[in-house]
Amino acid sequence: MEEPEMQLKGKKDKFTESVYVLANEPSVALYRLQEHVRRSLPELAQHKADMQRWEEQSQGAIYTVEYACR
């Protein structure tokens, strides 16, 4: 390779490495995790509330069936 091509390749490699390091920076990872939690949490909280309600209803039905079988 000629000298200008070598310099260009070196600059390109350094730029690529810098972008890679920046993209994998721990603070960026924490930001992405925070985004995910903010998007997912309301839906998960709703599912939890639904499951608790269904558990209460099923426990009531089980109690009724057990009482009727006595």
UniProtKB/TrEMBL annotation:
Q: What is its main location?
A: membrane
Protein localization: Lysosome membrane
Q: Which residues form the signal peptide?
A: none
Keywords, A to Z? Lysosome, Membrane
- Superkingdom: Eukaryota
Keyword check for Cytoplasm? no
Query: Which ranges form a coiled coil?
Result: none
A matching Pfam family: BORCS8
One GO CC term, this protein: lysosomal membrane
The record's comment on protein family reads:
Belongs to the BORCS8 family.
Question: What is the name of this protein?
Answer: BLOC-1 related complex subunit 8
